[in-house]
């Protein structure tokens, strides 16, 4: 028996499935609707197949659909890091620990890197979220990537906005490949300083959860959940932005965990409760008969 919990929704700010599904006659809409109805356990395979069917939409679909994060190893630091579209250049991915692309590029200097001060903030953020990961996940991998979103380079004042992504991944190790699970968190962040000492933080968060069990029931839960958050917070300098982002991510992940617990495990428990009974069928029949007799007797009064 297979039990599948599906929660659909991509996380990239633009474009997203709300845009792709705006017209039912549009090929984009049909592709999005098809994707949402396929088994979420096979995200990569489903996405590749749809891109083969609609090659003209491949770039837009790939940029709007979140998939489980892949890992790579930084040769310079020896640490693992997470890969996504935001640290990719061709087939290479930038390490947040060394600021170097792997596999190495011939034109590394021409590849996209954050400006000098933003790179300092990125390093600080990676160290901070590495502590967060260890406290909350007790293992796993975390990576943070920042990039300049304005013409001017980010400085220590914090008055120049930028964007970034916080990635977290935890995999359950198991001797049996069919028995385990994984949690992937993707938080895409946009920081917009306003007038005075306040800034607007826009966060689009996606959690991808996969749990499988290799026992005779063959049960697995797989799906994703997306939420958007916008909040105005005070800041003193550029480092304050990292602190504010950390607080937001902590709060968002707590809320998403509660939602996932309700949707994944709560609904699955209800379904199993409806289709499985601990009492013998004879007992239920006797109970129904007694109930009917009681109603008939009450009607005769």
UniProtKB/TrEMBL annotation:
**Key word Cytoplasm present in the record?**
yes
Highest taxon listed in the record's lineage: Eukaryota
- Which UniProt keywords are given for this protein, alphabetically ordered? Actin capping, Actin-binding, Cytoplasm, Cytoskeleton
Which BP terms in the Gene Ontology apply to this protein?
Answer: actin cytoskeleton organization; barbed-end actin filament capping; cell morphogenesis
Cite the Pfam families for this sequence: F_actin_cap_B
* GO CC term (a single one): F-actin capping protein complex
So what family is this one in? Answer: Belongs to the F-actin-capping protein beta subunit family.
Name this protein carries in UniProt: F-actin-capping protein subunit beta
**What is the species of this protein?**
Ogataea philodendri
């Amino acid at each position: 028996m297979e039990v599948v919990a599906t929660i659909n929704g991509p996380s990239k700010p633009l474009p997203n499935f709300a845009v792709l599904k705006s017209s039912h006659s549009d090929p984009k809409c049909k592709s999005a609707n098809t994707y949402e109805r396929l088994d979420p356990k096979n995200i990569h395979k489903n996405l590749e197949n749809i891109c083969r069917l609609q090659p003209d939409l491949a770039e837009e679909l790939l940029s709007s659909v979140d998939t489980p994060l892949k890992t790579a190893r930084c040769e310079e630091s020896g640490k693992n890091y997470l890969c996504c579209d935001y640290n990719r250049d061709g087939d290479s991915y930038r390490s947040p620990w060394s600021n170097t692309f792997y596999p190495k590029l011939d034109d590394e200097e021409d590849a996209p890197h954050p400006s000098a001060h933003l790179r300092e903030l990125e390093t600080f953020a990676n160290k901070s979220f590495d502590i967060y990961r260890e406290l909350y996940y007790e293992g796993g991998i975390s990576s943070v990537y920042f990039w300049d979103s304005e013409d001017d380079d980010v400085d220590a004042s914090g008055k120049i906005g930028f964007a970034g992504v916080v990635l977290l991944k935890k995999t359950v190790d198991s001797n049996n490949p069919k028995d385990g699970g994984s949690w992937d968190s993707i938080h895409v962040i946009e920081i917009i300083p306003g007038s005075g000492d306040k800034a607007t933080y826009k966060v689009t968060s996606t959690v991808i959860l996969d749990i499988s069990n290799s026992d005779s029931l063959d049960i697995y839960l797989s799906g994703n959940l997306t939420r958007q958050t916008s909040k105005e917070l005070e800041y003193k300098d550029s480092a304050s932005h990292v602190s504010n982002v950390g607080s937001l991510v902590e709060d968002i992940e707590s809320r998403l965990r509660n939602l996932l617990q309700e949707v994944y495990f709560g609904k699955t428990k209800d379904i199993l409760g409806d289709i499985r009974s601990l009492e013998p069928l004879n007992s239920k029949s006797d109970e129904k008969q007694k109930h009917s007799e009681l109603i008939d007797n009450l009607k005769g009064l």
